[in-house]
Specification:
This protein has about 200 residues and is mainly alpha-helical. It is built from ten helices and no strands.
Length: about 200
């Protein structure tokens, strides 16, 4: 994997700080896969360049701070940020509209699901902050719960697969496909629940 090959020597040389900075960059919507970043952090731990448990803590800090900055930018500087040409290249109008539609339809649960969808995570968190309808504590709980699932999976997968790259990448792809399948099932269930709720509201009115 090209991203892995690019990140590995950097992470090996600079350690935790490189992993943390790269996760912050991921939080701002730069097209670097967060899962590969975390797996690579786990790999350098498996190769003896870092402690896997400290790497887990660094990973949690990186993703939560990166996401929190995006939420806060939406809350305090949303309108101004949307006018910046560079920002609009990352958070395109199409992505922003898609995030708004998902947020209006599914509410706070979108913030949980967004952690597993790289193309949607940044616009969803930015939109959540920009609307002013989501408390910081609510965002923190939803994103934090999702991060407690995703971060250790990728970190420890890299750690245990550091000496067997063929197995590592095969397992990484299986995890990704399995995750998308579960998210698809969850999205369908959530949509059915939302439709039933809307019908009940119309019936009661």
């Amino acid at each position: 994997m090209q991203v892995f090959d690019f990140l590995l020597p950097i992470f090996t040389h600079y350690g935790y700080i490189a992993v943390f900075v790269m996760l912050l960059i991921c939080g701002f919507g730069v097209p670097v896969p967060e899962d590969v970043t975390l797996v690579t952090g786990g790999v350098i731990a498996g190769l003896g360049y870092a402690n896997p448990h400290v790497m887990f803590a660094v990973g949690m800090a990186g993703v939560m701070i990166g996401d929190g900055l995006m939420f806060s930018l939406g809350r305090w500087r949303g309108e101004k940020m949307m006018q910046l040409p560079g920002f609009r290249r990352v958070l395109t109008p199409a992505r922003f509209e898609k995030a708004q539609a998902a947020f209006e339809k599914y509410g706070r649960w979108v913030m949980f699901v967004a952690r597993f969808l790289p193309g949607l995570r940044t616009p969803v968190f930015f939109t959540a902050g920009m609307t002013g309808k989501v408390k910081f504590s609510t965002w923190f709980l939803m994103d934090g719960f999702a991060a407690l699932i995703s971060v250790p999976v990728w970190i420890y997968l890299g750690y245990f697969g550091a000496q067997n790259r063929e197995w590592l990448f095969a397992t990484l792809h299986k995890f990704q496909y399995g995750l998308f399948f579960l998210l698809g099932v969850g999205a369908i269930a959530l949509f059915v629940w939302w439709r039933k709720k809307k019908r009940a509201e119309r019936s009661g009115s």
